[in-house]
Amino acid sequence: MSLSTALNIAQNSLLNSQRQTTVVSKNIANAYNENYSRRTSIVSSLAPGNRIAEVRRATDEALFRQNLNALSGWTAQSTIVNGLDRLNLAVNGVDNATSPATLLGKMQEAIQLYSSTPSNRTLGENAIEAARSLVRSLNDGTSQIQKFRAEMDSQIALGVAELNTLLAQFQKVNDEIKLATTSGREALDAYDQRDELLSRIAELVPISTITRANNDMMIVTADGMTLFESTPRSIQFTATPIFASDTVGSQILVDGVPLSPGNGANTNAGGTLAAMLQLRDDYAGGLQAQLDEVARGLILAFSEEDPNTPGSFSAGLFVSVDPSVDLTTADRKTGLAGKIAINPDVDPIKLRDGINYDINPGLPAERHANFTGLLNKFSTAMDAHQTFVGADGSSYEMSLMNYSTGAISWLEDARKNADYGAETKSALLVRTAEALSNVTNVNVDEEMALMLELEQSYAASAKLLQMIDEMLETLLSVVR
Questions:
Q1: Quick one: how far is CA 178 from the chain centroid?
Q2: Which of 149, 64, 82, 93 is nearest to 421 (CA)?
Q3: What is the pLDDT of residues 58-72, one digit of tens each?
Q4: Where are the domains of the chain?
C-alpha cells in the first residue's frame, strides 16, 4: 500500500467519524422527542477505504399506519367517555341525585303520604314542592343538554379550523419532500414533520395514506373521502351559536361530502370530529327525547277528566308553557321537558279535590277533607302503562316510573360500554406506540456506546495520520 493510499484512507476515516458523530449527537439530542425518528449512517466500501453512502431514517410504514388507526380510535373513544360523563353529571347530578327518576319517586312518595292524611295542608304543600323540584329537573336538564350541544358544536368548529390549518402545513412539508427527492437531497427532518402532522390529523379524523412518485403523499379518510391530493381539500362547517331543542346542527363537509358521525357507545368513529358529532346529535338528542317523554307522561298522568263529559281532559298539576302542545292527547313535542311547568292555580286543596273540576261534589263538608280518590288516581297513574318512545325511536309499553328509570339505565349502560371501549383502545394504542417506538425512537445507551466506538475510530485514524506523517518526514529527509 502506498503512502498516498494510506493517507486517503485515513482522511476518509476521519470524515466518516465526523459525520457519524454528528448523526449520533443529533440522535442523543432528540432522545425524548416523540416526533423524531432515529438516524443511521450507512457505510459503503469504496476504494480507497469506506465512505458514508447515506443517512437513513428509522421507520416502519405498517406499524405507523396501525398506530395512526389506533390513535384515531382512542381519541374518538375518549371524547365519547368524557362527553357522556359530562352529560350525566349535568342532567342527573352526582349519583343521580337530581335526575327526573329520583325526583319522580320522591314526588310519588309525597303524594302517597298526602293521601294518607288529605286534611294536612302541609303534606299537600310538600307534594307540590316535590312536583316543582321535578319540573326544575326537567327544565334544567333541557337547558344543560342544549348548552352541551352548543359546546360540542363550538368545539367541532375549532376542530375543523385546526384540520384545515394542518392540511395547509402538510402541503408545505410534502412539497419540500418532493423537491428534495427530485434533486437528490436529504429531507429527513421534513419526513419527521410530515409524520407528526399525520398523527395530529389522525386525532381529528381517521385517515389512510397513499405514497406516490417522488414520495408525494395522498391522504384519504376511512370513508374514502380525499383530504389531500397535491393540495388540501376544503373542510367546511357552519357553527350554530345557540341551540334550542329543535335545532339541527350543521354537518361537516369534506369537499362537499358529509363526514359520518360515530355509532355506538364503544364507538366505531375515528377522531374527535366524528365523536363530537355523535355526542351532539345522538346522545344529547336521545337524552333530550327521553326527558320530553317523561314530561309528556307527567302531563297525561296528572290530567283531569271532566266528570260531566267523560273522555274530555284538561291539564292538571302539570302544564306546558307552549300553547301549541295539545295537553289532552299524547302529543310529542320536541323540547317539552323545557316547557313543562306547575299549574299556577294549584294549591293543596285543589291538588286533592281537582284544579279544573270538583272531583268530589256533593260530599258533606265534614267528609270533604278526607277525600283521597284523586290523589290515589295520581299515584296509580304513575305506575300505569303508557306508550313511550325511547332514544332509538322504538315504542315501549311501560309505566312512567319505569321509563324514567330506564332513561338513567340507558345513559349508564352507554357510559359502561364507552369505558370498556376506552380501555381496549387505549391498550391497542399503547401496544402499537411501543412497537413503533422500538423501531424509530432513540436508545440513549446504544447511542452512547456507538459514540465511544466512533471516538476509538477517530483516535485510530488520527494515529494512522501521525504514522504517515512520520514516514513522509523520514522519506523526505532521506531524499535530501
A1: 34
A2: 82
A3: 888 899 999 999 999
A4: 3-60+440-479, 65-429
